[in-house]
């Protein structure tokens, strides 16, 4: 057979090249193009290496300096004393003195109590908010600030003023004050009762010095704060013989103050406010200084 013009003649022996059948190839340019990588320049490599060496040197020097000087304040948490001393202005008032306090088992015989905040006093110096003799007693620890609030119970038959004295003392100073209160039984002295806060137009308006019935004064040692509280009858009746909260809460106490649970009122409100303060200070100590 004569081959057609222009056709490729078959190889000798009549062998033909096989035709391949299959899937078509991937069209050109269907994949993302790679961005060209510029050739590295020696001066950039050298500069990068120098920066690494310099950075490591600075970090090592700072760490060594902190180790030698004992300065580990950067990036560390505040101490409880540092955090607590500033809590009177750094913690919201509703955290220091919640609008409502729950006293589960805080009443006589383990009954439950609920206290509602009547008013909050403006922060003040201790001279403006404490009796002179109590002020003198706390002079050894100094006074940074005094904050107070007044609460009433659910029946509105009792009122209680609670206060926080933020001191300038360190741990040893607060421990010395606590020891003094314990050994000399200062917390039971009537002439060291806290003052009331009785704003006009509230249910505590008639809660004055003569209406003070039961009280507690508690110097803390973990933080530089003295917690104090004083309670009385909401109807404004005068009290001839005030009674410390510990005595009014004692088993078998039969005074009008004890029977009315005013010792429990003072201690219960003070304890809940103290717990809230401790929680707030714990949160502050976790924040970097």
Describe the structure.
The chain has 289 residues and is of the alpha+beta class. It has a domain at 91-285. It has ten helices and seven strands. Strands 1-2-3-4-6-5-7 form a seven-stranded mixed β-sheet. A hairpin with a 5-residue loop joins strand 5 and strand 6 (225-233). The longest helix is centred in the N-terminal third of the chain and has 28 residues, at 42-69. Residues 11-40 and 51-74 have low confidence and may be disordered.
Q: Overall mean pLDDT score?
A: 82
Q: Tell me, what's the shape?
A: globular
Structural class determined from secondary elements: alpha+beta
Strand order of the largest sheet: 1-2-3-4-6-5-7
Roughly how many Å is the radius of gyration?
A: 39 Å
Strand content: 15-25%
C-alpha termini separation = 101 Å
The stretches of 5 or more residues where confidence is low (pLDDT under 50) are: 11-40, 51-74
Order of helices and strands: HHHHEEHHEEHEEEHHH
Helix content: 25-40%
Number of helices: 10
Number of strands: 7
Main sheet record: 7 strands, mixed
List the helices and strands and how they pair.
Layout: H1 42-69, H2 80-85, H3 87-90, H4 93-96, E1 100-103, E2 113-120, H5 126-129, H6 132-137, E3 145-153, E4 158-166, H7 171-184, E5 214-219, E6 225-233, E7 243-244, H8 245-248, H9 256-259, H10 262-285
Parallel strand pairs: 5-7
Antiparallel strand pairs: 1-2, 2-3, 3-4, 4-6, 5-6
């Amino acid at each position: 057979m004569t081959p057609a013009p222009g056709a490729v003649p078959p190889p000798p022996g009549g062998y033909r090249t096989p035709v391949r059948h299959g899937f078509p190839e991937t069209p050109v340019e269907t994949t993302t193009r790679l961005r060209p990588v510029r050739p590295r320049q020696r001066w950039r490599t050298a500069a990068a290496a120098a920066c690494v060496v310099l950075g490591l040197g600075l970090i090592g020097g700072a760490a060594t300096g902190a180790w030698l000087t004992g300065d580990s304040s950067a990036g560390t948490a505040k101490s409880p004393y540092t955090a607590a001393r500033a809590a009177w202005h750094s913690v919201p008032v509703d955290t220091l003195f919640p609008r409502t306090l729950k006293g589960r088992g805080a009443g006589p015989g383990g009954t439950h109590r609920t206290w509602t905040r009547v008013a909050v006093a403006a922060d003040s110096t201790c001279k403006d908010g404490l009796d002179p003799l109590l002020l003198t007693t706390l002079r050894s620890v100094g006074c940074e600030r005094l904050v107070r609030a007044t609460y009433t119970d659910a029946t509105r038959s009792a009122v209680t003023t609670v206060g926080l004295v933020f001191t300038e003392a360190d741990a040893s100073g607060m421990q010395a004050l606590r020891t003094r209160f314990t050994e000399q039984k200062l917390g039971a002295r009537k002439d060291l009762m806290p003052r009331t806060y009785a704003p006009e137009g509230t249910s505590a308006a008639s809660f004055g010095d003569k209406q003070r019935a039961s009280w507690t004064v508690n110097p803390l040692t973990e933080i530089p704060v003295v917690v104090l509280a004083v309670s009385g009858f909401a109807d404004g009746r005068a009290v001839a013989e005030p009674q410390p909260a510990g005595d009014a809460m004692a088993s078998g106490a039969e005074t009008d103050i004890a029977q009315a649970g005013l010792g429990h009122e003072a201690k219960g409100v003070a304890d809940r406010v103290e717990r809230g303060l401790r929680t707030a200070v714990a949160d502050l100590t976790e924040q970097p200084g």
